[in-house]
Design a protein that fits this description.
Helices cover 59% and strands 8% of the residues. It is mainly alpha-helical. The protein has one domain (3-70): lambda repressor-like DNA-binding domains (434 Repressor (Amino-terminal Domain), Orthogonal Bundle), CATH 1.10.260.40.
Length: 75
């Protein structure tokens, strides 16, 4: 999928655990983990808003578009 979720990066920058974020945004650990690992197929704006509020960031800090062509390029 060309949308990359950088939730783990923002959590590391804010030094926040998955448990702590789960409590702040009132999402289950399993749903948050699915989002964190990039396995989610969708995210509600209300969830994105809650995460941005908890991590003090912008949606663009959490989501990134990487085209399939760009992924295929060697480093």
């Amino acid at each position: 999928m060309p949308i990359i979720v950088n939730l783990d990066v923002m959590m590391a920058k804010r030094k926040m655990s998955l448990n702590e974020l789960s409590e702040k945004v009132e999402l289950t650990l399993s749903n948050l983990s699915i989002l964190k690992t990039g396995k989610a197929k969708a995210v509600r704006f209300s969830t994105l808003e809650a995460i941005c509020k908890a991590l003090e960031c912008q949606p663009g800090d959490l989501l990134e578009f990487v085209s399939e062509d760009e992924k295929a390029k060697p480093d």
